[in-house]
Specification:
16 helices, 3 domains, alpha/beta, 4-stranded antiparallel sheet, elongated, Rossmann fold, Four Helix Bundle (Hemerythrin (Met), subunit A), binds zinc ion, 4-stranded parallel sheet
Length: about 500
């Protein structure tokens, strides 16, 4: 295991802290997953990729990581603007589907998009709907502790009572006094003692399909509750990392902290991590703005705002070119620039495989490779600074090009070390797939080997002056989409 020097920015303390897991050698990480209803869109891609890199890096450092990402499928989140009806339930009713069919349909689409983005599936993906009993038990304990009350078959968290004993608002920095004094003339809030109180259990209205029995009513759990319950069930308390998008800090994560403290007497989370948001041409994404672009639309280029299709790896690379706490603004220009940059990186990676050792030129200093590796580790250890890692990888590409051009001479061991840097940082940690068709590097190896073999046969044919064979191999490869170049040292190929 590598010496741990990882600094993580903790949203709670608002500073970078040396990462120290609760249990040596093991890490528990919980990330708020998607609300199932809705198309997999760009907003889903950023937390998934951000925490995929956290997962990959912690694993690389030698930790045994248990990564939990929930599926919000109880369907209390997105309510139809007109009827107030739960959206999963509405779609189920209109299309005569069982609600879980609707959930599964969207979940399959989400998983497909995540696979395309090379996001490693989490260790556990629990459904809120599969943990109703645990949530009911959790509510009972909060009631016993005196931080919740029952009202008309629903159960609410008592924010003023909690705030008198603890600090409600410490994560988001919200001013609680303002929150508590808000006027209470909002519709449907009569059941609550204070507008800031939030639901732990909601009594279902007659048309609400997704409902479960409880001591209080037939109903469904409040949204914030599933994350406290499932996080503690699978990771224990306290656990190490809780992540999600910045938009979840309030109320979602603030409420989670309050629930855990009320339930356990202490916080359940050591490090709160939040990725920043995505804008499109400077604007927030939203259906009404006409800039709500799904991941499938990015991959196919089918949205009117897109000038072309962008491969999943371009989207991934583009997101990682920014630090996760910085904003990312999508535009065709920015994506096209990323596409070119990624191509340059992948050209360097492929060229690496055909480098010849001791090929003339000034000898490469070992210290140059050492300093590249050091820069990459230091960047990852500094709160996962992926843009710096990418800059160092581009410098490594320059080293590759110099060796390839015969300006620098490298030993076989140095070439192997250079290959190791790319395999570790570009492939394993940043999760960039280097194969032409999006297969990962290991999958592509046999095919790359086969192309190399054909080109070696062509070199032999040329040496034997067998022009018919050498031309045939070149032309047939070109027809298949390979770009073959003769170089000083033999050949080089890429996929057009
Ligand atoms: Zn959550």
């Amino acid at each position: 295991m590598r010496d741990n020097q990882l600094l993580i920015y903790n949203s709670l303390s608002r500073q970078k802290e040396l990462f120290k897991p609760v249990h040596p050698g093991r890490v528990g990480m919980y990330v708020c997953g998607p609300t199932v209803y809705g198309d997999g869109h760009l907003g889903h891609a950023r937390p998934a990729i951000t925490f995929d890199v956290v997962f990959r890096y912690l694993t690389h450092l030698g930790y045994k990581v248990r990564y939990v990402r929930n599926i919000t499928d109880v369907g209390h989140l997105e309510h139809d603007a007109d009827s107030g009806e739960d959206k999963i339930a509405k779609k189920a009713r209109l299309e005569q589907l069982e609600p879980m069919e609707v959930v599964q349909h969207y979940l399959n689409r989400y998983h497909k998009a995540m696979d395309a983005l090379n996001v490693i599936p989490p260790s556990i993906e629990p459904h809120a709907s599969g943990h109703i009993i645990e949530q009911i038990e959790y509510i009972k304990k909060i009631l016993e502790a005196g931080y919740a009350y029952e009202s008309e078959g629903s159960v609410y968290f008592d924010v003023p009572k909690y705030n008198a004993d603890h600090h409600y608002g410490k994560l988001s920095g919200r001013n609680i006094d303002e929150l508590l004094s808000t006027t209470r003339d909002l519709d449907g809030q009569q059941e609550k003692r204070n507008p800031a109180d939030f639901a732990l259990w909601k009594k279902a209205s007659p048309e609400h399909i997704m409902r479960w029995p409880s001591p209080w009513s037939d109903g469904f759990p409040g949204w914030h509750l599933e994350c406290s319950t499932m996080g503690e069930k699978y990771l224990g308390t306290p656990f190490d990392i809780h992540g999600g998008g910045m938009d979840l800090k309030f109320p979602h994560h603030e409420c989670e902290i309050a629930q855990s403290v009320a339930h356990n007497g202490h916080d359940s989370v050591r490090y709160w991590m939040h990725n920043n948001m995505i804008t499109i041409e400077g604007q927030k994404m939203g259906k009404s703005l006409g800039n709500f672009i799904t991941l499938d639309e990015f991959f196919s280029g089918s949205h009117p705002k897109l000038k072309q299709a962008y491969s999943p790896m371009v989207i991934r690379f583009f997101i990682l070119q920014a630090h996760y706490r910085g904003t990312v603004d999508f535009s065709n220009e920015a994506l096209q620039a990323s596409e070119k940059a990624l191509q340059r990186m992948l050209d360097g990676y492929r060229r690496l495989k055909s480098l010849k050792a001791d090929n003339g030129g000034a000898p490469l200093a070992d210290s140059e490779l050492e300093s590249l590796e050091k820069r990459m580790y230091e960047a990852m250890d500094d709160d996962l600074n992926t843009p710096i890692v990418i800059a160092a990888l581009f410098d490594a590409c320059s080293v590759v090009n110099n060796i390839n051009d015969g300006r620098t001479s490298a030993t076989a061991a140095q070439i192997e070390r250079l290959q190791g840097l790319f395999d570790t940082f570009l492939v394993d940690i940043l999760g960039i797939q280097t194969g032409a068709e999006g297969g990962d590097a290991a999958d592509m190896k046999p095919y790359e080997g086969a192309v190399d073999l054909l080109l070696e046969m062509r070199s032999k044919a040329k040496a034997d002056k067998d022009w018919t064979t050498s031309d045939m191999i070149r032309d047939r490869l070109a027809a298949l989409g390979f770009d073959v170049k003769d170089t000083k040292n033999g050949f080089e190929w890429s996929v057009k």
